Amino acid sequence: MTLSKNKFDFEELLNRHHLKKTSPRLRVLSMMSSKSTATSQPDLESVMNDIDRVTLYRILSAFEEKGIIHKVFDLNGTANYAMCLSNCEENHHHDEHLHFNCSNCKNVYCLEELSMPAINVPAGFKIEALNLYATGICPKCSKKSPAK
């Protein structure tokens, strides 16, 4: 979802999802939408030290439940969060895209331009969520290190 970084857009997003417009929620949205990578709760805590851990956890949980953000895991198994596309709904995410974990800088990128391939499962199985992870070196780290 492409969000401009102004307060009105975030307030409208919270209205649309029936969430109160609180300063901590607006700040979390602003911070997350400004990042090109997924971010973890500890990373958010380090830059938003005036929002306590429990409040931040509740904000992230509410945003995930409402389809505003989605959870993706990094190479260490830590939950990271990224803004959802506009077609995510409450309790039903449409974040079936490649999640790229850089083994150098440890950032997690949502490569939304790459769709998931069609998966045909045997009779009786129903896919409710699908995740595709790739591990490698991101463009930023590729520029830093000499070619081998």
Task: Describe the structure in brief.
With 148 residues, this protein is α+β, with helices and mostly antiparallel strands. Helices cover 32% and strands 21% of the residues.
Write up this protein:
The structure is a single chain. This protein is of the alpha+beta class and about 150 residues long. The protein has a single domain (about 5-145), classed as Winged helix-like DNA-binding domain superfamily/Winged helix DNA-binding domain (Arc Repressor Mutant, subunit A). It is about 30% helix and about 20% strand. It has five helices and six strands; from the N terminus they run ααβααβββββα. The protein has helices at about 5-15, 25-35, 40-45, 55-65, 140-145, and strands at about 40, 70-75, 80-85, 95-100, 110-115, 130-135. The strands form two sheets. The chain has a three-stranded antiparallel beta sheet with strand order 1-3-2. Strands 5-4-6 form a three-stranded mixed beta sheet, with no helix packed on it. A hairpin with a 5-residue loop joins β2 (about 70-75) and β3. α1 (about 5-15) crosses α2. The longest helix has 14 residues, at about 55-65. The model is unreliable at about 1-5 (pLDDT under 50).
